[in-house]
Design goal:
By secondary structure, this protein is α/β, with parallel strands linked by helices. 28% of the residues lie in helices and 27% in strands. The protein has seven helices and twelve strands. It has helices spanning 26-32, 54-58, 69-72, 79-85, 89-104, 119-128, 176-182; strands at residues 3-6, 11-16, 19-25, 37-40, 44-46, 49-51, 108-113, 131-134, 155-156, 168-171, 187-192, 195-199. It has a four-stranded mixed sheet with strand order 3-2-1-4, with helices on one face. α5 (89-104) runs parallel beside α6 (119-128). 40% of the residues are buried.
């Protein structure tokens, strides 16, 4: 079924399967697709974010299971704390899956990575649908699940045009300026390949 996603500003995307069928003002898309389901979101539609520290967050950090919070906390573990865990492939894969899901919860639709060396990590991330984008060198800044908190300018994915992949994120803010101020924790929905992969409850 074709679905029109719209935001508080009246901007809208029509999604059919895994692709964008149309983009523009809500009224125009409703007229073009009168039988489409309309899903209204608070805030603003964006193409979604590209986290520039994909390698660091997915392959060089451990994202604790919630059941490990009392012992390990909730933040990603790196350095000596990571080494001390002596992770096997199963735990690496589970960590990468949780890390990718946390990225999706911050409106990230792609992670910039060097080629992932750990096959368990690569397989787990691909199953989430998160896009792995190449990068030429390690970026500046501090790895963060919130790209606005990384100390480098946040990068958005390319604009969504008809025929492009149905991949975008919605943030519950008034505009891009407020998004930069409040950060990606304001994400309310993330869509990959036409599927709603994150929705804030």
């Amino acid at each position: 079924m074709l679905t029109i996603h719209t935001d508080s500003r009246g901007h809208a995307l029509a999604v059919e399967g895994e692709l964008i069928a149309g983009a523009g003002p809500l009224q125009e898309l409703v007229a073009a697709y009168p039988h489409a389901r309309v899903r209204s979101w608070p805030g603003i539609l964006t193409p979604g974010l590209v986290n520039q520290h994909g390698t660091e967050l997915l392959e060089e950090a451990y994202h604790p299971d919630p059941r490990e919070a009392d012992e390990l906390g909730t933040e990603p573990l790196t350095g000596d704390a990571l080494t001390a865990l002596a992770l096997d492939d199963a735990r690496w894969g589970a960590s990468a899956r949780r890390g990718a899901q946390r990225m999706l919860a911050h409106g990230t639709v792609a992670a910039a990575c060097e080629p992932l060396r750990n096959q368990a990590v690569a397989d787990a991330v691909r199953r989430t649908g998160l896009v792995l984008a190449g990068r030429a060198a390690r970026p500046a800044g501090v790895p963060s699940l919130d790209p606005f908190a990384a100390g480098v300018p946040a990068v958005f994915a390319p604009p969504r045009d008809p025929g492009s992949a149905a991949r975008f994120a919605v943030f519950d803010v008034r505009d891009e300026e407020e998004l930069a101020e409040r950060g990606a924790g304001t994400c309310v929905a993330t869509v990959l390949a036409g599927r709603l992969v994150f929705r804030r409850r």
